[in-house]
Amino acid sequence: TPPPAPPKQKTKSAHASWYSDIVPAMVPIALLGSAVYLALQLTQSSLLHEKYLDEARTKVTQLEAQIEKLQSERA
Fold it and tell me: Which residue ranges make up each domain of the chain?
Protein backbone atom coordinates (compact mmCIF):
# COMPACT_ATOMS: atom_id res chain seq x y z
CA THR A 1 0.00 0.00 0.00
CA PRO A 2 1.26 3.43 -0.83
CA PRO A 3 1.93 5.87 2.02
CA PRO A 4 -0.82 8.42 2.68
CA ALA A 5 -0.53 11.64 0.77
CA PRO A 6 0.64 14.63 2.81
CA PRO A 7 -2.15 17.06 3.73
CA LYS A 8 -2.57 19.82 1.21
CA GLN A 9 -1.70 23.32 2.40
CA LYS A 10 -4.54 25.75 1.94
CA THR A 11 -3.25 29.01 0.57
CA LYS A 12 -5.06 32.15 1.62
CA SER A 13 -6.44 34.39 -1.04
CA ALA A 14 -5.00 37.89 -1.28
CA HIS A 15 -8.20 39.36 0.18
CA ALA A 16 -8.28 36.96 3.12
CA SER A 17 -4.64 37.66 3.86
CA TRP A 18 -5.21 41.42 3.69
CA TYR A 19 -8.23 41.25 6.01
CA SER A 20 -6.46 38.98 8.50
CA ASP A 21 -3.54 41.44 8.64
CA ILE A 22 -5.43 44.74 8.68
CA VAL A 23 -8.67 44.18 10.61
CA PRO A 24 -7.12 43.12 13.95
CA ALA A 25 -4.78 46.13 13.78
CA MET A 26 -7.72 48.47 13.17
CA VAL A 27 -9.64 47.45 16.31
CA PRO A 28 -7.54 49.57 18.72
CA ILE A 29 -7.65 52.47 16.27
CA ALA A 30 -11.45 52.26 16.10
CA LEU A 31 -11.69 52.13 19.89
CA LEU A 32 -9.37 55.11 20.27
CA GLY A 33 -11.28 57.05 17.62
CA SER A 34 -14.57 56.32 19.37
CA ALA A 35 -13.15 57.42 22.72
CA VAL A 36 -11.85 60.68 21.23
CA TYR A 37 -15.18 61.33 19.50
CA LEU A 38 -17.15 60.76 22.71
CA ALA A 39 -14.76 62.96 24.70
CA LEU A 40 -15.15 65.78 22.17
CA GLN A 41 -18.92 65.38 22.18
CA LEU A 42 -18.99 65.54 25.99
CA THR A 43 -16.76 68.63 25.94
CA GLN A 44 -19.04 70.33 23.41
CA SER A 45 -22.09 69.52 25.51
CA SER A 46 -20.41 70.87 28.63
CA LEU A 47 -19.37 74.08 26.88
CA LEU A 48 -22.86 74.60 25.45
CA HIS A 49 -24.35 74.17 28.92
CA GLU A 50 -21.86 76.64 30.38
CA LYS A 51 -22.69 79.15 27.62
CA TYR A 52 -26.40 78.74 28.33
CA LEU A 53 -25.83 79.36 32.05
CA ASP A 54 -23.77 82.49 31.32
CA GLU A 55 -26.51 83.84 29.04
CA ALA A 56 -29.15 83.05 31.66
CA ARG A 57 -27.13 84.85 34.37
CA THR A 58 -26.77 87.88 32.12
CA LYS A 59 -30.51 87.93 31.43
CA VAL A 60 -31.32 87.58 35.15
CA THR A 61 -28.97 90.47 35.96
CA GLN A 62 -30.66 92.63 33.32
CA LEU A 63 -34.11 91.77 34.63
CA GLU A 64 -33.07 92.49 38.22
CA ALA A 65 -31.74 95.88 37.10
CA GLN A 66 -35.07 96.60 35.38
CA ILE A 67 -36.98 95.63 38.53
CA GLU A 68 -34.84 97.93 40.68
CA LYS A 69 -35.30 100.76 38.20
CA LEU A 70 -39.08 100.33 38.10
CA GLN A 71 -39.30 100.08 41.89
CA SER A 72 -37.26 103.26 42.32
CA GLU A 73 -39.50 105.07 39.83
CA ARG A 74 -42.61 103.92 41.73
CA ALA A 75 -41.33 105.13 45.07
Answer: 35-75
